Structures are given as C-alpha cells and as structure tokens.
Amino acid sequence: MVGEEGGTYTVQVSDGLTLNAPKSSLTLRPEGTPLPRAVFANINVKNSGTHSEVQVLLPERVPFTVEQQAGQGGSLDLRLFHAVSDVEYIVSDVPTGAVRDVRWVQDADGVVRLHVDLNGAPWGYDATYGADDSAERNTLTLRVRNAPAINARQPLAGRTIVLDPGHGGDEFGGAGPLRVPEKNLTLPLTLRLAELLREKGANVILTREADTTVPIYNRPLLAEAKNAELLVSIHANALPDGVDPRTKRGSGVYFYNPQARALADAVQGALVEKLPDVGNDGVHYQNLALTRPTTQLSILIETAFLTDKSNLRTLMSDTGRERLAQAIALGLERFYRDAALKQR
Predict the structure, then answer these.
(1) To which H or E segment does residue 220 belong?
(2) Mean pLDDT per segment of 10 residues, for the chain of length 344 residues?
(3) Among the CATH numbers 2.60.40.3500, 3.20.20.30, 3.30.540.10, 3.40.50.1110, which is that of 3-23+34-145?
(4) What burial letters (b/e) apply to 147-178, b meaning 16+ CB within 10 Å?
(5) 228: which of 104, 223, 271, 340 fits an S-S bond (Cβ 3.0–4.6 Å)?
C-alpha cells in the first residue's frame, strides 16, 4: 500500500502500475510481510446458462484487472499480479456461450495476462473471488454474459432493462433559468419511457418511482441484482454559471466501456432523427459512475440542456417529454433488433 484517500487505498501491484481499491476489499498485513506469489496450473471454462465463466484456481488471492479490447469483435484481458502461470492445458465446455477461447501469457515476472476471445461483443462481464467462507474462496471467476436470444420481430419482448431517473429526493440535479430542478423532469419522462417499453414486452425496473433519494452506487447494484441487460440513466444537461448558455444545446449519450458503444449510437441516432430541433450533442466517451459498471451495458442520456431556452421548453412540456421518451424507446428497440439480426 503506497497511499490512501478517503475510503480508497492506492496499491502498487507491479513495478510500473498502481491501482486504487476500496478499503473494504483489502486486508492490511504487518509491514515486511512477503508479497504473495500465486503459482497456478488450472483454468476452466464453464457455460452456466446466462453467463460463461472463466475460472482461475489460485492458491491465494492476488490483485487483478479486467480490460475490454475495443473493436468489432470482442475480447477481454484479465491480468493477475503477483502470479505465475504453470498452466499446461485449459478445459472448456462445448463453446456455445460467450467465451470462444482462452490463452495465457506471462507478461512480466509476477504478471500473468489471460486473453479471452469472445463470440462477439460482450453483453456484460464481472470478475470476483468466491465467498470468504467457501471452498472457492481463492477461485477467481470472470463471468461474461451470454448474448440473449432476441426475436427480431419483437426485439423488446422479455428483455430486462433498468431505467434510472436521474437524481431525486435530496439530489436536485441541475436547473435552468426557471429554477425547475432536473429531478422533477427526469422522473415523468422515465416513467413514460417505462410504459412504452412495457407495452412492447420489456421487463422494466426503475431505480425510483417517486421523489426519493437513491445513492448513486445503489443504482448499478440494482441492475446487477436484477440481472438486467441494460442500465439506462436519464438526465438533463446544464452549463455551469458564467458560461454563455447559447453555446451548447442538444441531446447527448454517454458511455465508457466499449461494449456499450453500439447501444449509445442507436439511442443517439434515434434522438437526433426524431428531435432535430433539440440539437445533436453527440456520443461521449466518459468515465462516470453510471457509465462505468460492466455487469450490463450501461449508458447515460443527457436528453437536452436546461440552460438552453428551446431545449428547456421541450423538457418542461408534456409533448416534449413524450417525444423524448418515444425516441429513446425507438433507439432501444433498434439496438435489440440489430443485435437479433446479427445472431442469424
């Protein structure tokens, strides 16, 4: 441990790399304790139905990272630190799930990289150790969501989507010149969006259905608990004080992980097509609390600018919010339909 701030430790995991980790996930040992050196020989690949799993059987827990490689295909790199691979073979289930192939490389002394080739772009992934009191305590499992079976004629039927009306309760969000808080505009818009998606057969879960405070990190945790395929957070943008409000307007969609780019593109495309008068603020790559989660495809939609008079009129009118909800629903439907056609 080489530093700390708030609830986070900074840990040096190799000569040239430090990582930030929640204090709750680490146990500090006395100074001078030898660093772990986990020599492992077993990697298994399992298909568990909704997910494919890459299981690394370790003698003790070591730090790790997971990174998705951008591109049309799909692959993940799982890096293990303070580890040495002695793997001679890898046992895989019949490769009908998300994982196509696994290879390993000893990148440096104490750094092993598992390269996981996927059957297309992932629909979500996570990596965790087994429970502390279980026999799998030291087994690191990389779970990759298998592509759902989608009906191209009814692409939203049976899909599980978590919708997140931005802010709420004590969290007011932004405000425009009329001082109407963002939280009061995102809720009715998201409730209407939920109705539209349910009419087309989607299973929709909302992070809030009233003016209540929901901690920001509880929102993606709900999506994970519900095994949702998508987390869609609905917001309204605003410029800070002192910036000319005439300089920025339009809808924009934010993503962080490459797996969510196609979803962001589909929603932004529908917004621009159906609301050209609102404007096009583009697709943004940005590391945000609600775009960072990887367990599902996660995007954040800034529907319009509270600080632009015309955009604000759209947000404050029933007709404007209806147009926004219809456009987002269309974008989600197109995303799923495109995914279904690629499965053929």
Answers:
(1) helix 218-225
(2) 82 77 78 87 91 96 92 86 94 82 94 94 96 95 96 97 97 85 97 98 98 96 97 95 88 97 98 98 97 98 96 97 98 98 86
(3) 2.60.40.3500
(4) beebeeebbbeebbbbbbbbbbeeeebbbbee
(5) 223
